[in-house]
Amino acid sequence: MKVLGISGSPRRDRTTDKLVKTILDATGLETEFISLAGKTINGCICCLGCINDNLCKVQDDYLPIMNKVMMADAIVVGAPNYFGRLNALTHSFLERWYCFRHDATGNGGMCLSGKLGAIASVGGGGEWQMPGKENRMYEIAGDDVKGFFAYNGIDIVGVVNAQGAVPCFTCGYGEICRVSGAKMFFGDDVKISEDIIPCLEKQPEIIVQAKELGNVLRKRLGQVS
User: Fold this and answer.
1) Phi-psi bin for 37: left (phi > 0), alpha (psi -120 to 50), beta?
2) pTM for this entry
3) Cross-strand pairs, 156
4) What mean pLDDT is predicted for residues 149-174?
5) Helices 204-220 and 15-27: crossing angle, nearest 10°?
6) What phi and psi values does residue 132 have, to the nearest 5 degrees?
7) What single string gives the DSSP state of each residue in 28-71?
8) Domains, the chain, ordered by start
9) In this predicted model, what pLDDT tens digit does every residue of 194-203 receive, in sequence order?
């Protein structure tokens, strides 16, 4: 049994990466972690080059990952929230799963159907108003990934949500910018220091949840200990 972890954050070794790795480690199974940081992954262009063989034909960094997705028994996707939505890098990656949907031969399409999926959703704190719904900022990206999983017939085992550090903490203007996220969380008189910047290590309850999710994945894959 192999569990593939994908982090869609363009920032290496931050909360999204660490959350995915925590889930993977807790499975106790064969795992592989892939960061999309620094990779060129374009969105689906609807060229339909995949309809006969379920293989994407767009030449970029998605192609080496495509077969890994296909061969995995379970997939963990880590996704950050940008501007109140799933970030573009993760979205482009998941769009490319369109190549797995076809059944031109009649021998069984929906190549990802029946795989297990887990989600690591990361965002800033606070509430976000959406039409007809209130949502915590760190849940939004995960909700979008749920849609991609459901569309591909992936059985969603669970979601873990963590708070990440908005760029305002490190951009250099977080204490004076009128629209600073740091001010949003800590008030207009905020003084930015390392101890107030969110990170996974400061969220022990989330680490516990991530480990529990990894344990559930192991059990669902039939490797009960």
Assistant:
1) beta
2) 0.90
3) 117
4) 93
5) 40
6) 75, 10
7) -SEEEEEE-TT---PPP----TTTTTS-----STTHHHHHHHHH
8) 2-164+199-220 (3.40.50.360), 166-198 (no CATH)
9) 999 999 999 9
